[in-house]
Amino acid sequence: MATAGIVSLAAMRIGIGAMAWAKPDLTARLFGFSEPDGQARYAWRLFGVRDVVVGLGTVTSRGDRRRSWAAVGLACDVADGAAGTLGRADVKPISAAAMIGVPAAAVGFGAWALTRGGR
């Protein structure tokens, strides 16, 4: 079950990351943000490619390497949640909820899967 959780989280990471890279305007709207300018599109794509790479590293590896990739993803999710917390006053409440809630859910689920021995 834990292994399936790690792989599922990685697959979601790949999907969201690919969408952020390919369609930053759509991704911004899904997170409750206004239409991004060129700088924001660039930032969405940076986030997107990072998530695709971490997700692919996770799903294409096995055993301890998969756990290492999952731990990297967990660290990214913690950092994303911290960034959301720091920036929450600068955005609409719905966006702040997404900026904090999405990574918090990923941290909770990822930590659960890693502590249950997902490989």
Summarize the structure.
With 119 residues, the protein is mostly helical. It is built from five helices and no strands. Helix 2 packs across helix 3 (38-59), helix 3 runs antiparallel to helix 4 (63-87) and helix 4 packs antiparallel against helix 5.
Question: Which term fits the overall shape?
Answer: globular
Number of strands: 0
Q: Which residues form runs of ≥5 with pLDDT under 50?
A: none
The count of helical stretches stands at 5
Q: Can you summarize the main beta sheet?
A: none
Percent strand: under 5%
Helix content: over 70%
Distance between the termini: 10 Å
**Any idea what the radius of gyration is?**
14 Å
Question: Helices and strands in order, then pairings?
Answer:
Elements: H1 2-22, H2 24-30, H3 38-59, H4 63-87, H5 93-115
What does this structure look like?
The protein is mainly α. It has one domain (2-115). It has five helices and no strands. The protein has helices at residues 2-22, 24-30, 38-59, 63-87, 93-115. Helix 4 runs antiparallel to helix 5. The radius of gyration is 14 Å and the shape is globular. The termini are close together.
Primary descriptors:
single chain; 119 residues; mainly alpha; 5 helices; 82% helix
